[in-house]
Design goal:
With 120 residues, the chain is mainly β.
Length: 120
């Protein structure tokens, strides 16, 4: 129902910046919330930032003050500043939809991920 494609990853030196983009297609009118998650090698996938349909945002403590999530219609962005080597991970975009199929239901959709590497 919803397809997500991330872009903007790359290699950057510590202290640098990157801007990730996520483009949603399909049933975009049903999307309520979107967010960014990341997974480093050997670690669990963790929440980075989320943004609800009303504009409320939530950030992991490790990125507060450095990362900013924003949304423009069917696109969500993650501005990453003051990057640290520990930010190195594959970053995934997530969208949550609300629709009525035999009742209301919430569904999560994930992008394929984009690699972010921060060198020291």
């Amino acid at each position: 129902q919803v397809q997500l494609v991330e872009s903007g990853g790359g290699l950057v030196q510590a202290g640098g910046s990157l801007r990730l983009s996520c483009a949603a297609s399909g049933s975009i009118s049903s999307i309520n919330a979107m967010g960014w998650y990341r997974q480093a090698p050997g670690k669990q996938r963790e929440l980075v930032a989320t943004i609800a349909s009303g504009g409320n945002t939530n950030y992991a403590d490790s990125v507060k003050g450095r990362f900013t999530i924003s949304r423009d219609n069917a696109k969500v962005y993650l501005q990453m500043n003051s990057l640290k080597p520990e930010d190195t991970a594959v970053y995934y975009c997530k969208a949550t939809t609300l629709r009525q199929v035999l009742g209301f239901r919430l569904d999560d959709y994930w992008g394929q991920g984009t690699q972010v590497t921060v060198s020291s």
